[in-house]
């Protein structure tokens, strides 16, 4: 096996591992019952009101984001970006598996919920860092933001914040419409939005030497 193929294999293995770690973080944040991460908020609200699982709605929502990327980018949409489809399916199954693994976790005290939330954010931040480190495929949420940036030449950071806020607002509106109360979007959604990216960036800075050690 050539060095390039070995590097690519390592990258995909790291990405898949990061995807699973990511799903564990999402599941733990969700089990804290203080809201979930912004990108998962719409699938979570839908899962609370319909028969499909969080993982299944995550897959459906991800496919929608991929379709929107195609609409936004048109002929500039790259065929390799269709790899987001199997990645989304795997991520959805990982989320459902992680929810089953953590089924026994049902914190009642607020302090315990906050602890689970913070640990979940840390785990999710590690998963995001692993996906960035692999640098092979992006999840549809980030790819959608990049598509908007490419199409309208906006600033990535501002666009990402606007996207996260939009997801939370839409999820809250859907919750009020479907259940006549706010479920699935709470203070934990805000905490996750602020912490996860910060954790991933901090890990990246601390382990700046790692890509050079792992890849040729």
TrEMBL record:
Entry keyword annotation includes DNA damage: no
Species: Fusicatenibacter saccharivorans
Protein name as catalogued: YitT family protein
InterPro entries documented for this protein: YczE/YyaS-like
PANTHER family: INTEGRAL MEMBRANE PROTEIN, INTEGRAL MEMBRANE PROTEIN-RELATED
UniProt keyword Lyase, yes or no: no
Keywords, comma-separated and alphabetical: Membrane, Transmembrane, Transmembrane helix
Pfam family, one: DUF6198
Transmembrane segments: 12-30, 50-73, 85-102, 114-140, 161-179, 185-204
